[in-house]
Design a protein that fits this description.
The chain is mostly beta strands. It has a domain of about 100 residues. Helices cover about 5% and strands about 40% of the residues. The strands form three sheets. Strands 1, 3, 4, 6, 7, 9, 11, 13, 14 and 16 form a ten-stranded parallel sheet that branches. The chain starts with 11 loop residues before the first helix and ends with a strand. The relative contact order is 0.10.
């Protein structure tokens, strides 16, 4: 009556195959001031950088601390810069704090800059193409276009 259900644990193979429980969010990876990386950095999760990277960075969310430096291209969902970036930034949301120094183009849907931030480059607003029609595949039992109903475009 008041007993708890037995815990089930997924094996590593189940998790790899996508059969196990949903993946828990991971804590952000922290790269301290004394860390210097030469090469590309890739992560599905969040990264907080206080060190230096010479190479391209592709992560979920990137925070460049005041001591952080990146010399390379950045691709992320969100980028917060307090340090120095030399290279292009491509992200949906970009925030440059007052201590930020960015030399390179920023491609974004949303860009916020605090007073004191230094930015030399182009701000390119990314907007999904409007009016581009993509044909939806027919579902079983759906009316065929030859029966007088035109296909629906996805916009």
């Amino acid at each position: 009556m008041f007993s708890r259900p037995a815990k089930t644990s997924a094996t590593h193979a189940d998790a790899v195959e996508g059969l196990g429980p949903a993946r828990r969010s991971l804590p952000a990876s922290l790269m301290a001031e004394n860390v210097a990386i030469k090469g590309d950095v890739t992560s599905d999760g969040d990264v907080h950088l206080d060190g230096a990277i010479s190479g391209d960075v592709r992560v979920g969310c990137l925070t460049v601390g005041e001591a952080g430096r990146i010399n390379g291209a950045i691709e992320a969902d969100m980028v917060v810069v307090r340090g120095r970036v030399t290279g292009s930034i491509t992200a949906r949301h970009v925030r440059l704090h007052g201590s930020a120094q960015v030399e390179g183009d920023i491609t974004h849907t949303e860009l916020a800059m605090d007073a004191g931030a230094r930015f030399q480059g182009r701000s390119i607003r990314f907007e999904p193409a409007k009016g581009v029609a993509v044909e939806v595949p027919a579902l079983p039992g759906a009316v065929e276009p030859s029966q007088g109903v035109p296909p629906r475009p996805i916009v």
